[in-house]
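Predict structure. Chain length: 135.
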Amino acid sequence: MASSCKKRRFRDPQSVERSIDNVRNAIPQTTRYKNRWGVRIFEDSQSGRENKVVMCESNPFSLDLQNLQNLETELCSMTARTLNFWLIKFVQEVCDKDGKPYPGRTVYQIICSLKRHLDKNGRAEANMLNANNHW
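Prediction complete.
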């Protein structure tokens, strides 16, 4: 068989731009949208919440609040303990634009969006979906 008739097993090397494009397109557009949506909801809750000071929050768990950050802290900069504390409040308080509580499945999707956002920003250790990951 002549070499000109042989099928090539591999494609030509890809450019850096094409590789970046491939990675970007590996995440479905709907997932990218949901990630932005979940983060936006959390950030809206941060800005809209009246009390942002951890020491002024009710504490039914008898937790040591001394080293926790206030709610103004950017999501990716929160310590795992701070994130756990404020996510407990967030899950209890989040509702749709009409003031109705989200169904559990929707709250789960929001938390998954936050998890993916944290992963993307180098915070894979902050896994609020893992029961073994607690304070």
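Summary: The chain has a mean pLDDT of 87.
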